[in-house]
Write a structure and sequence with these properties.
14% of the residues are buried. This protein starts with a helix and ends with a helix. The chain has 125 residues and is an all-alpha fold. It is built from 4 helices and no strands.
C-alpha cells in the first residue's frame, strides 16, 4: 500500500472513530435528556401540581379561566412538560408578583421557588 493510501486509510479511520464518539455522546445526551424529562414529570406530579391546586386552579382551571390559561388541563407530568410556553408565562407572572393576585392566598417563598425552579428546569430539556 502506498504512503498516500495509508494516509487516506488513517484519515478514514480517524473520521470513523470521531463519528462513533459523536454518536456515543449523542446517545449519552439523549439518555440524559430522558432522565431529566422523567425527573421533571415526577416533580410536577408530586410537588408542583398540588401547589397549583392550592394557589392557581381556582382562577386558572375549569370552565372559565383567567388569562386564557387553564392549569387544570395538565393532569400529569408528561402533559405539563410539553407545555413550556405556558410555564414561561406562569414564571413571568410569578416573578413580577402578579400571580397569585394580592387578595388571594399566597405561596410561601419556598413554594414559589419550587414552582419557578421546576419551570426553569424545563429549559434543559
Amino acid at each position: 500500500m502506498s504512503i498516500l493510501r495509508k494516509a487516506g486509510a488513517v484519515q478514514f479511520l480517524a473520521m470513523i472513530l470521531a463519528c462513533s464518539q459523536t454518536g456515543a455522546a449523542e446517545a449519552s445526551g439523549a439518555a440524559q435528556r430522558e432522565a431529566l424529562t422523567t425527573k421533571a414529570e415526577s416533580a410536577f406530579s408530586e410537588q408542583v401540581k398540588p401547589l397549583l391546586a392550592t394557589y392557581c386552579v381556582k382562577c386558572h382551571g375549569g370552565e372559565k379561566t383567567k388569562g386564557d390559561i387553564n392549569l387544570a388541563n395538565y393532569k400529569n407530568g408528561g402533559q405539563a412538560v410539553n407545555a413550556r410556553s405556558v410555564w414561561a408565562k406562569v414564571a413571568d407572572e410569578m416573578h413580577h408578583g402578579e400571580m397569585p393576585p394580592e387578595k388571594e392566598k399566597q405561596p410561601s417563598p419556598d413554594e414559589r421557588k419550587l414552582i419557578t425552579a421546576w419551570i426553569s428546569s424545563l429549559r434543559r430539556l
